[in-house]
Amino acid sequence: MVSIEFDNGVAWVTLNRPDKRNAMNPTLNARMLEVLDELEVDDRCQVLVLTGAGDSFSAGMDLKEYFRETEAKGHMATRRAQRDSYGWWRRLRWFEKPSIAMVNGWCFGGAFSPLFACDLAVAADEAQFGLSEINWGIIPGGNVTKVVADLMSQREAMYYILTGETFDGRKAAEMKLVNFSVPRAELRARVRAIADNLLEKNPHTLKAAKDAFKRVVEMPFDAAEDYLVVRQESLNFLDKSEGRKQGIKQFIDDKTYRPGLGAYKRG
């Protein structure tokens, strides 16, 4: 259901149901909760990359197993299935380490939620995206509607929600659903380069920076200002390597780096 490959600080996590276009069923969702728990305390994972096996990122929720079979078991079975799926997307969003979605192919419906949960996203130009829910009688649920409302313009989001039309990786980048797209042949190398950049950074600061951004997006200005002051003070306490002091020392005293051109050297 899920495979993990460790490679020099990066955990490549692959949704592994290629025969089903990596559609998410209850078993996969439960396993992903376990995977995230495991990787959060595994030093071999400093950056997490989420992708899909074969020609798909994920076709969304498994219509047969997630919907029909779960609903046949009654209300509480449906709620348990929702808790697992929504749960791992939430865990991924607040994961302790930076995460990158590598969208190698089909990304439909429910797959927009883990796409959004990752801190960064890179797509293949050839990848196909779509909100197909309208075509089979439901709305984009599981927070998918919230995802497109946050990441896309209202006109573009409404167009794809109502028509169910597909769009490619280039269009996804144009709409800022992903950071950018590259030809599929270059996708893994480009994601690896981003991961290597992140590996140079202070991990405590990465966590604080990404969480701070996600929190202040929904705050009024004054509340965000107060929160960010407290967040930095918390970071100063939690970072036992005293990265802030090291960075300032290496810039001002040692003159060994320039903050605008790269990261300070961690001990």
Automatic annotation (TrEMBL):
An example Gene Ontology biological process: isoprenoid catabolic process
Matching SUPFAM superfamilies: ClpP/crotonase
Cross-referenced Gene3D superfamilies: 2-enoyl-CoA Hydratase, Chain A, domain 1, 6.10.250.2850
InterPro entries associated with the record: ClpP/crotonase-like_dom_sf, Enoyl-CoA_hydra/iso, Enoyl-CoA_Hydratase/Isomerase
Protein's UniProt keywords contain Lyase: yes
GO molecular function, one term: lyase activity
Keywords assigned by UniProt, alphabetized: Lyase
Pfam families the record matches: ECH_1
EC number of this enzyme: 4.1.2.41, 4.2.1.101
Record's keyword annotation contains Protease: no
The organism's place on the tree of life at top rank: Bacteria
Family, similarity comment: Belongs to the enoyl-CoA hydratase/isomerase family.
Entry protein name: p-hydroxycinnamoyl CoA hydratase/lyase
Origin species: Azospirillum lipoferum
